[in-house]
Amino acid sequence: MLQGQGLLAEEISAAPLLLGYILLILFLTGTVMGSFLCCFAGRFIAHESVLKGRSHCDFCGHVLGAGDLVPIISYLALKGRCRYCGHRISPRCLATELLMGLLFDAGLLRYGLSFSLLRYLVLICILLILSLIDLDTYLIPDRFHIAAIVNWAACLPLIAWEEGGKTGLRAAFLSAFSVSLLTGVVTAAVMLLASLLFDRITGKESMGGGDIKLYFVSGLYLAGWSAYLCVVFSCIIGLITSGLMKKQKIPFGPSIAAALVLCLLFGDKIVSWYLGLF
After folding, report:
1. Which of 142, 161, 116 has its CA nearest to residue 268?
2. Residue 186, number of CB atoms within 10 A of its CB
3. What is the per-residue pLDDT for 13?
4. What is the CA radius of gyration of the chain?
5. Residue 34, φ and ψ in degrees, nearest 5
6. Alpha-carbon gap, residue 96 to 94, rounded angstroms
């Protein structure tokens, strides 16, 4: 059953076939976006134009045909290798396509057909791009923080109208704006102070400026205890990632992004369950 309070949420929940159809469309859309964004990140890192030039093999340079570009299916059919040179294609492509398909569906189940779903879908696309770039460069370009902030600001009045109605629009907007901005500032400030303290004690850099800015972004999208939960989750995910990669220094942006998505999907329920223990 849909948990979202968005438009047509009740109607969709009451019609399993309609729900299944929308989930299928969203899953396919997510896989396509995952494929495109993976290509986007690769070209961004290589300083290539994203809008010009056809997709090609990164190893032999052969232009890819339509049969090579079907998300998930092409990778499995070609057994993870280039059709033309036989070079192995990174499994990251398959993982990215599958993950985005699942996250698109999870968003519908959480938010229903709503402006909150729209904001969520745009945000996870931005988070995917910056995570892929951070994995290879250890940098998060400011333009992606700005894109996330613009998405938050653009959707905020729409969500306020959806939740507060026309009569309570102004009050709902001002409340959401002030709470989100305050949460973002406090989250970023606390993590900046913690990072500076850790750096001073250990003599090593713990987080970069891009990570602190991403914590600010996470605070904008979350509220209250969910923002604190995001910090906890990101640290846990970072420690697990460090252990799996067997590296002392890892790109931390993907951990923050993963924690933010988890909190957007399940944060409210986890916080409610935890507070209910007392």
Report:
1. 116
2. 15
3. 62
4. 20
5. -60, -40
6. 5
Which two tokens mark 123?
A: 């945000």
> Where does the chain have alpha helices with state H?
9-13, 16-45, 73-77, 91-111, 115-137, 142-164, 169-202, 209-221, 225-245, 253-275
CB distance 68 to 74 below 8 Å:
yes
Q: What angle do CA 145, 146, 148 make, to 5 degrees?
A: 65
- Token pair belonging to 187: 């989250």
Residue 167's pLDDT is: 55
Amino acid code (one letter) for 110:
R
pLDDT of residue 7: 46
- pLDDT given at position 198: 87
- Band (pLDDT 50/70/90 cuts) for residue 263 is very high
Sign of CA dihedral 152, 155, 156, 160: negative
Within 10 angstroms of residue 36's Cβ, the number of other Cβ atoms is 19
Domain residue extents for the chain: 1-113, 114-278
**Hunting for tokens 């990072």 — which residue is that?**
195
- What's the rounded Cα separation, in Å, for the pair 145 and 125? 12
Backbone torsion region of residue 143, taken as left when φ is above 0, otherwise alpha when ψ lies between -120 and 50, otherwise beta: alpha
Residue-wise DSSP of 70-131: STTHHHHHTTTB-TTT-PBPPHHHHHHHHHHHHHHHHHHHHH-BSHHHHHHHHHHHHHHHHH
Q: Rounded CA gap, 235 and 255, in Å? A: 7
Please say whether the beta carbons of 160 and 176 come within 8 A: yes
Paired with 63 in beta bridges are: 56
Query: Per DSSP, what are the bridge partners of residue 28?
Result: none
d(CA 6, CA 121): 14
Q: What is the pTM of this model?
A: 0.90
